[in-house]
Design brief:
The structure holds 2 protein chains of 2 kinds. By secondary structure, chain A is α/β, with parallel strands linked by helices. Helices cover 27% and strands 13% of the residues of chain A. Chain A folds into 2 domains: 3-188, Rossmann fold; 194-312, Cytochrome-c3 Hydrogenase, Chain A, domain 2, CATH 4.10.480. Chain A contains 11 helices and 11 strands. In chain A, helix 1 (15-21) packs across helix 6 (164-175). Chain A is elongated, with a radius of gyration of 21 Å. Chain B is of the alpha+beta class. Chain B has a single domain, classed as Cytochrome-c3 Hydrogenase, chain B (Orthogonal Bundle), CATH 1.10.645. Chain B has helices at residues 55-58, 66-69, 78-92, 99-125, 140-147, 153-173, 193-215, 219-223, 228-237, 239-243, 245-256, 363-369, 373-382, 386-410, 459-463, 475-480, 492-499, and strands at 17-23, 30-37, 40-48, 182-183, 186-187, 267-275, 291-299, 302-304, 311-314, 320-321, 326-327, 335-336, 351-354, 360-361, 427-435, 438-447, 450-457. The longest helix of chain B is centred in the first third of the chain and has 27 residues, at 99-125. Classes of the chains: A alpha/beta, B alpha+beta. The interface between A and B is large, with 72 and 85 residues.
């Protein structure tokens, strides 16, 4: 018997599905066949008729159809006023359908920052929230105490979008009968126990405080350009995007899109400063020591960095 | 072209019935309501069923924040949103990006187009050829072998090859989806020779695959097809043509009479896209001197000049209140009004109109406005239809690959990719371009260095719009009228018509400022 997967899209952009289509080694098809997983429904790929889809949902909810993996992409839309009528399926709030299916699924994966924490629509009139978190706060749509039939909380795979390797690897681990080790915010530590800053090719520029104040240079983007690399946990510079690169490598600051508070409320592309030192320092760093260290590091910066000769 | 058109075969229902059809493979949430009498659609309503409220995120934010937020409107069209956001900011910052920045921007948007066109055709549109509704047809078994979801031969090919185009976006822009590497004045990256070399290699690989798998011939052979007679001759020329995905599409479409459905209003709109950089060997389609793809508005094949001042949005049938008639996006008002008590309102989408008229947008519109001989003659003889729309989508990459190759060769490695803009404190501007599925515009107003208003009109807002203040149907509503529906439980024909527009519902946003912070991501 193959394991079964149902993919639901709520208040989101479809970007996580697009990310997944880019997976390689295994690609999506290799993964499904190697793990013996049957996709019961994916909104962008299935070709069953509307009535067949409705019957499938009924069979899952009644328990007649086993559901091993419920993958949710996009936030849970609860507005207006908690009714969920801003997002309906056949005239019913999608959130009600989600609640029914969530109680039938062996494992639930919140794929992307919107499904994990609410993301783009959190705090807005759509009353978007994540499956088990609303931004930093545990609870979300299913409640802090929710555990799926497999005994796990909702497994959060944040990122805007979520990296394809994170999705395929988590599914593979679960399909093999394992359970990824979860860390803060119930996200797997293998992918979210590392800062975006780690592996950034601009690290040496950061080390010696050689900073950019505009686009197009090779220096560090943390001090003036709003980079969240030292503040955001995620694998962008570990596994790279589309197997090629990452934002920070091409001179685009990290926007902290894996963080529960993404999108931040203050402007992107600028760093809030106190006396030239960022308001938010790298995670866990002591301000006084950091000031002393950065002053000395800047004085020690080699010419090849100051002249931006070292490539990134 | 039809011989025994399955879609147009007689059907036997006589009573008037109403079908509510939740349609998938449209990148988002779409409910189509059709009234069916004597087995044919007599009326249609297109309803976007989700409201996400992205507007509240943009209002009051930093002037550049559209570069981060708007790509996230759509996981499919994100590079196009980035282009629109960046072009609006170029105008606000009173800067023209260096020619090589324009080339690189274009290359990433074209990469998005040529993978999306193939994915839409194979994964979204032709999946319906494997629908059991067609099990009696001689080509059905072959259709299943090719297009069954996640299993068909062509599906596997498309999934394995289209993603390589997105590696080009990642090399030049960091990642796909959701890069923010275009900035006012150019791009953040500075590609070196080796980066460009990798992009060339990826494009070359895609071209070889596209010629073999999709076309079944070289780009040059395809470009010689300039009329319907040429198309027939191309199909008859050899088995390689007949058995490519393009050849199979044409044969299956003939069998079911795909050209007999989905006519619509025959009004076409293009905002134009892919600005020509200074000193380039690339010539604009239809000899346009400003862009590779010209802007324009056409009634039938009569093309007139495009002016964004003629764009207005209506809300008479949308779940909003506050004004009558149409409003230009700089002056829009958005007050959600979800009751719909009068029975007039049925969607979260507004109804954009050009010069008061509904208009379809997308590759067919762009090719008609560029006066492409094959598609102009198809529209002149039969009007637009589902076959023409999907055909142009399958072959559009053939028109983009060579300009991409030229631009990749023209870029100077480690050259100039950024010109500092003026500080953006006040003003309003629009960024107009095209997403894969048609005209995309961002209308932006900045006050005190912050976003005061941000209005997005997407291609699916045009194509999937509801009725306007004059009760005129939106493009695919109109295109559905007359469509046969053989099996109300499996209305595959309705799917063909709507999907021929390459719907992208997640993208269909509304982002204008309204009182009480009431504005909307629609659908």
């Amino acid at each position: 018997m193959p394991a079964t997967l149902y993919w639901m899209q709520g208040g989101g952009c479809g970007g996580d599905s697009m990310s997944l289509l880019g997976a390689e080694s295994p690609d999506l098809l290799e993964l499904l066949s190697a793990l013996d997983v049957e996709v019961l429904w994916h909104p962008s790929m299935s070709n069953g008729s509307p009535s067949e889809h409705a019957q499938l949902r009924d069979r899952i909810i009644s328990g007649e159809q086993e559901l091993d993996f419920l993958c949710v992409e996009g936030a849970v839309i609860r507005g207006p006023s908690g009714t969920g009528m801003y997002d309906v399926v056949d005239g019913r709030p999608r959130k009600d359908l989600l609640a029914q299916m969530a109680h039938r699924a062996r494992h639930i994966l919140a794929i992307g920052t919107c499904a994990s924490f609410g993301g783009i629509g959190a705090g807005c009139e759509s009353e978007a929230c994540g499956l088990q978190y609303l931004r930093w706060e545990k609870g979300g749509f299913l409640g802090a105490d929710f555990v799926s039939r497999g005994g796990t909380p909702v497994i959060n795979l944040p990122g805007c979008p979520c990296h394809c390797d994170v999705i395929t690897n988590t599914l593979a681990t679960l399909a093999d009968g394992g359970l990824p080790k979860l860390g803060d915010y119930n996200a797997p530590v293998a992918w979210y126990g590392i800062l975006v800053h780690q592996g950034c090719t601009r690290n040496e520029y950061h080390e010696y405080r050689v900073e950019e104040q505009d686009f197009g240079g090779r220096g560090c983007l943390f001090f003036h350009m709003g980079c969240h690399g030292p503040l955001a946990y995620g694998p962008c510079n570990k596994v790279l995007w589309n197997r090629r690169s990452s934002k920070t490598r091409v001179g685009v600051p990290c926007f902290g899109c894996t963080r529960p508070d993404f999108p931040q409320e203050y402007p992107f592309f600028e760093t809030r400063n106190i006396e030239g030192i960022p308001h938010q320092l790298p995670d866990g760093v002591d301000r006084a020591h950091y000031l002393a260290y950065k002053g000395m590091a800047a004085a020690a910066a080699p010419e090849r960095l100051e002249h931006r000769q070292t490539r990134v | 072209m039809s011989t025994t058109p399955t879609i147009a075969a007689p059907v036997t229902h006589t009573a008037t019935t109403t079908l509510n059809i939740p349609l998938n493979r449209v990148e988002g949430d779409l409910q189509i309501r059709v009234e069916v009498r004597d087995g044919h659609v007599t009326d249609a309503w297109s309803s976007g069923t989700m409201y996400r409220g992205i507007e509240n995120v943009l209002r009051g934010r930093g002037a550049l924040d559209g570069l981060v937020i708007t790509p996230r409107v759509c996981g499919i069209c994100n590079t196009a949103h980035l282009m629109a956001a960046a072009k609006a900011l170029d105008a606000l910052g009173q800067v023209t990006p260096p020619p090589d920045a324009i080339r690189v921007r274009n290359l990433t948007l074209m990469s998005e187009h040529i993978q999306s066109d193939v994915r839409q055709a194979i994964l979204m549109f032709m999946a319906d050829f494997a629908n059991p509704a067609y099990r009696e047809l001689p080509l059905y078994e072959e259709a299943v072998a090719r297009y069954a979801p996640l299993k068909g031969r062509s599906v596997i090919e498309a999934i394995r090859h289209t993603k390589h185009m997105l590696e080009i976006v990642a090399i030049l822009g960091g990642q796909w989806p959701h890069s923010s590497y275009m900035v006012p004045g150019g791009i953040a990256s500075a590609p070196c020779l080796e980066d460009l070399q990798q992009c060339r290699h990826l494009l070359r690989g895609y071209r070889v695959w596209y010629e073999r798998q999709i076309l079944g011939c070289t780009l040059d052979r395809w470009h010689a097809v300039r009329s319907l007679a040429d198309l027939d001759a191309w199909l008859d020329e050899c088995d390689t043509h007949r058995n490519s995905d393009l050849g199979f599409f044409i044969r299956f479409a003939q069998l079911i009479g795909l050209d007999s459905v989905g006519r619509g209003h025959a009004n076409f709109l293009s905002f134009g896209q892919l600005d020509l950089p200074a000193e380039t060997d690339v010539r604009g389609f239809g000899d346009d001197t400003a862009r590779l793809v010209p802007a324009g508005f056409a009634r039938g094949t009569q093309v007139t000049e495009f002016d964004q001042a003629n764009v207005a949005e209506h809300i008479a049938h949308s779940w909003f209140e506050g004004y009558e008639g149409g409003k230009h996006p700089f002056h829009g008002v958005t007050r959600p009004y979800a009751s719909g008590g009068e029975g007039q309102k049925y969607t979260w989408a507004k109804a954009p109109r050009y010069d008061g008229l509904p208009a379809e947008t997308g590759p067919l519109a762009e090719f008609v406005i560029a006066r492409h001989p094959l598609f102009t003659s198809m529209v002149e003889s039969d009007g637009p239809n589902a076959f023409a729309r999907e055909l142009v989508r399958l072959v559009r990459p053939a028109a983009l690959i060579k300009p991409m190759e030229r631009w990749l060769n023209e870029v100077t490695p480690d050259g100039t990719f950024y010109t500092r803009p003026k500080r953006i404190e006040q003003g309003q501007a629009c960024g107009l371009t095209s997403a894969t599925r048609g005209a995309l515009g961002h209308w932006v107003r900045i006050a005190d260095g912050k976003i005061e208003q941000y209005q997005i009109i997407t291609p699916t807002a045009w194509n999937g719009s509801p009725r306007d203040s004059d009760d005129v149907r939106g493009p695919w509503e109109e295109a559905l009228v007359g469509t046969p529906v053989k099996d109300p439980d499996n209305p595959v024909e309705v799917g063909h018509v709507v999907r021929s527009f390459d719907p992208c519902l997640v993208c269909t946003v509304h982002s204008i400022r309204g009182p009480n912070r009431h504005t909307a991501r629609i659908l």
